């Protein structure tokens, strides 16, 4: 039977755990707010980059011998890039990307295409390796504060693989942020550039309407 002293010690221990949990919650909330602010600040730049890329692809239609614009009649190999986090304990954040990627790979293989794997984030790399899959490109250690140099390293490897005809198409799987509790898995084509999901139809229509209103 527990003594009064044991009960008091247990109550004190629970209080200490509650204080630590509250402190961790406050730190997590502050980090989430900063992350949301960075997302909001970067969205105009991301939208502008998409528009510039789409316009460049359209303008380059008549320019011959640009490797990333050349479409392959027969696509035998597909490169799949999974964008995950470096850490776990994030609910479905990482697992839903892995499920979407492996489901797409199964579809490609069923149609006779082979798959080359690329993964950004330790969770994606470790999960693919655990499944016995060979990861051609593994990129880790920067998910907390990604920089342009990190994106450039990934894109350089993907473009080289496409130009060298190691892959005939490149697709990316990532989480589109909706709210702290909700992310949407997005699948986009990166290469060839003519097939790339540079801008959604709805966004393009909104831009055209905005341009027309500006001219009135």
Kindly describe this structure:
The chain has 216 residues and is of the alpha/beta class. It has a domain at 72-191: Pyruvate Kinase, Chain: A, domain 1 (3-Layer(aba) Sandwich). It has helices spanning 4-59, 92-110, 122-130, 148-163, 201-215, and strands at 77-83, 114-120, 135-139, 169-179, 182-191. It has a 5-stranded mixed sheet with strand order 3-2-1-4-5, sandwiched between helices. Strand 4 (169-179) and strand 5 (182-191) form a beta hairpin. The protein is elongated. The N and C termini lie far apart (84 Å).
Q: How many β strands by DSSP?
A: 5
Order of strands in the sheet with most strands:
3-2-1-4-5
Shape: elongated
Structural class: alpha/beta
Please tell me how large the radius of gyration is. Answer: 23 Å
The number of helical runs is: 5
CATH class group of the domain at 72-191: Alpha Beta
- CATH topological fold name of the domain at 72-191: Pyruvate Kinase, Chain: A, domain 1
* Helix content, binned percent: 40-55%
User: Please, what is the average pLDDT?
Assistant: 82
Major sheet: 5 strands, mixed
Beta-strand proportion: 15-25%
CATH homologous superfamily identity of the domain at 72-191: ATP synthase, F1 complex, gamma subunit
CATH architecture of the domain at 72-191: 3-Layer(aba) Sandwich
The unreliable regions are: 199-216
Provide a brief overview of the structure.
Helix content is 53%, strand content 19%. It contains five helices and five strands.
């Amino acid at each position: 039977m527990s003594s009064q002293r044991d009960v008091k010690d247990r109550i004190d221990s629970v209080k200490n755990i509650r204080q630590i949990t509250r402190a961790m919650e406050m730190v997590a909330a502050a980090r989430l707010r900063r992350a949301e602010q960075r997302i909001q600040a970067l969205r105009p730049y991301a939208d502008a980059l998409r528009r510039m890329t789409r316009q460049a692809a359209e303008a380059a239609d008549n320019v011959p011998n640009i490797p990333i614009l050349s479409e392959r009649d027969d696509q035998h190999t597909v490169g799949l890039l999974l964008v995950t986090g470096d850490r776990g304990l994030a609910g479905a954040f990482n697992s839903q990307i892995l499920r979407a990627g492996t489901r797409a790979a199964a579809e490609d293989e069923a149609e006779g295409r082979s798959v080359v794997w690329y993964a950004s984030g330790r969770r994606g790399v470790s999960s693919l390796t655990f499944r016995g899959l060979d990861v051609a490109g593994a990129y880790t250690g920067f998910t907390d504060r990604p920089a342009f140099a990190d994106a450039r390293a990934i894109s350089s490897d993907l473009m080289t693989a496409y130009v060298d005809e190691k892959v005939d198409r490149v697709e990316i799987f990532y989480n589109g942020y909706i709210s702290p509790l909700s992310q949407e898995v997005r699948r986009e084509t990166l290469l060839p550039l003519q097939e790339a999901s540079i801008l959604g139809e709805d966004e393009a229509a909104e831009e055209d309407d905005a341009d027309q209103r500006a001219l009135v």
